[in-house]
Specification:
The chain has 378 residues and is α/β, with parallel strands linked by helices. It contains 13 helices and 14 strands. It folds into 2 domains: 5-11 and 259-377, Aspartate Aminotransferase, domain 1 (Alpha-Beta Complex), CATH 3.90.1150; 16-257, Type I PLP-dependent aspartate aminotransferase-like (Major domain) (Aspartate Aminotransferase, domain 2), CATH 3.40.640. The longest helix is centred in the C-terminal third of the chain and has 21 residues, at 260-280. Bound molecules: pyridoxal-5'-phosphate (PLP). Pyridoxal-5'-phosphate (PLP) is lined by residues 10, 61-63, 88, 135, 137, 139, 165, 167-168, 188, 197.
Length: 378
């Protein structure tokens, strides 16, 4: 018999109650039952985004909401400042270029967080910057960029919009959109929202909506002005991912019931335990200074081919984790503690990481990681 365990930073585990909700008969999207469901979901998701603004729900992967953000505010020749400290930072820069905007990139070493004063300096040099883009949690490097501090510096220095990729931050740690004055926040269904892939979320401040209204940039599927109008009436512009939206209501109820503060605290505990347990067996973290509570990236021990760690976990034990991307391929492994995961799951994962490291020839005090995790979690 073989059981599967999902500890990758997306897609993540889907709770059984969400899966059963998605097995219900398909509602027709123009029927009143669907409009009622959509209106409830559109209201409930505001709690997780910590906003009074409309949170638009799109049928696409998370990147769709990133593209929507760029396509609706950036015009050819517009300047953008982009924090590029990983795979997803690169994506913001690529999207800006595709839409004719000019990204000025802050290249941050992978594993480090951006220094907000660098954003400030670039804004001084480029006062006509239209928007600043970054990741609240850069999943490829397991780094948490200082969203509050970046937004603060942008507001002090300019009129630029603050655009945050919160795909592995919303529902993981505190990124209160309205309180911090963030102009655009995006997320996706298959990370902390505990759903399968297929939905993207985006919320805009009033200031961002004004920019979108004035923009002459061509947009069609991701025309947010059109979506805003439809979604205010419990409709979507095009056929929505009906089943995922049925699941979303259950997932949002689960988050509400646990309470956002408790959701954040659970992620904090699991992240702390993961980091400390890996250090307890002599391993080093890729992002020790500004780690994200969504995922932990760990350097493979010297002398061990890093790619073998996820490979053996998956092939021998049915446990999916993630390796590194681009130049970190084969050098790091990433353990996710995001979404439908508990302390009990983490102890099992940490125990199995010990098993695999030992079989691959790494020598360490066996049980030290598990023991550290037990101490911190229970
Ligand atoms: C997963 C992820 C994305 C991309 O989402 P897709 O659903 O793969 O399009 C973007 N940004 C971050 C930070 C992510 O973790």
């Amino acid at each position: 018999m073989r059981k599967g365990y999902l500890f990758a930073p997306g897609p993540t585990w889907v709770p059984p109650e969400v899966r059963s909700a998605m097995a219900a008969p398909i509602l027709h999207h123009r029927a009143p039952e669907f409009a009622a469901l959509f209106e409830r979901v559109a209201e409930k998701i505001k709690y997780v985004f910590q906003t009074e603004q409309q949170v638009l729900i799109l049928a696409s992967s998370g990147t769709g909401s990133m593209e929507a953000a760029v396509a609706n505010i950036m015009e050819p020749g517009d300047k953008a400042i982009v924090v590029r400290g990983g795979k997803f930072g690169e994506r913001w820069a690529d999207l800006c270029k595709v839409y004719g905007a000019e990204p000025i990139c802050i290249d941050v070493e992978w594993g480090k967080a951006v220094d907000p004063s660098q954003v400030g300096e670039l804004l001084d040099q480029n006062p006509d910057t239209k928007a600043v883009f970054w990741q609240a949690s850069e999943t490829s490097t397991a780094v948490c960029h200082p969203t509050y501090e970046i937004a603060k510096v942008v507001k002090e220095k300019s009129d630029a919009l603050t655009v945050v990729d919160g795909i592995t931050a919303i529902g993981v740690f505190d990124v209160p959109m309205d309180k911090w004055g963030l102009d655009i926040v995006v997320s996706g269904s298959q990370k902390a929202f505990m759903l399968p892939p297929g939905l993207a979320f985006i919320a805009l401040s009033e200031k961002a909506w004004k920019v979108a209204e004035k923009s002459t940039q061509p947009r069609y599927y991701f025309n947010l002005l059109k979506e805003r109008k439809s979604q205010a009436k419990g409709q979507t512009a095009y056929t929505p991912a009906v089943s995922l939206i049925m699941g979303l209501e259950v997932a949002l109820d689960m988050i509400r019931e646990e309470g956002l503060e408790n959701v954040f605290a659970r992620h904090q505990r699991m992240a702390d335990a993961t980091r400390e347990s890996m250090k307890a067996i002599g391993l080093k973290l890729l992002a020790p200074e500004a780690p994200s509570n969504a995922v932990t990236a760990i350097w493979a021990p010297e002398g061990i081919e890093g790619a073998k760690i996820p490979k053996m976990l998956r092939e021998t034990y049915g446990i999916t984790i993630a390796g590194g991307q681009e130049h970190l391929k084969g050098k790091i492994f990433r353990l996710s503690h995001m979404g439908y995961i508990t302390e009990v799951d983490m102890v099992q994962l940490i125990a199995m990481v010990e098993v695999v490291l030992s079989k691959l020839g790494y020598s360490f005090e066996k049980g030290a990681a598990v023991s550290k995790a037990q101490e911190l979690l229970f």
